[in-house]
Amino acid sequence: MRKQYLVAAAGLLLGLLFIIATHVYQTQQAQKLDFLAREDAEVFVRPHSPTLGSPDARVTLVEFMDPACETCAAFSPFVKKLMDDNPGKIRLVLRYAPFHDGADDFVRILEAAGNQGKYWETLDIMYQSQGHWASHQNPQPHLLWNFVAMAEVDLDMVRNDMNEPRIQRILEQDIVDARALNVTKTPGFFVNGKPLTTFGFKQLQQLVESEIARMYPQ
After folding, report:
1. For residues 208 and 59, is the Cβ–Cβ distance under 8 A?
2. pLDDT tens digits for 174-186?
């Protein structure tokens, strides 16, 4: 019986140590990111970053994304609804974390479509059609072109522009920043520099709404 108590006590102690270590790590990460948000804001938002929403919005939602990421596609309409529910208060900034196979090329296609003023239209179509060309069971990235055409872009221009050195520099900078911010999966969200530490729709909504309440006091 005594041995069982000792084992149980050891288990509880290990559990407690794990909770404390996790809390210390999260606190240190939060302090680091708060410092970066104040001293090196560009690590979150670069001049090349696509943005959506009012430039005067006091809440900046940064999303590290991958066009081939299923969860990114699932979050896209949710993020837009958050923006619609809070008009003028949220600015969305997209950064790239191309973790999936071939994702670099998907980003290049997206950026090249942006040269024709079709960035957001192309991204919406890529997300909506993602199951056809980026399925994990049967990925067929060559099919993406059929859907990109639906954004009414000049495909020859996209094929030519996607090799611009500018886009390679964007990819390299975003990867460096993702590493600095410890982004290891997509989507990775930051709201006014604060990371979404517990992942989920409800958690993101709570973080955004807490920043709205802080930045837009009644």
Report:
1. yes
2. 999 999 999 999 9
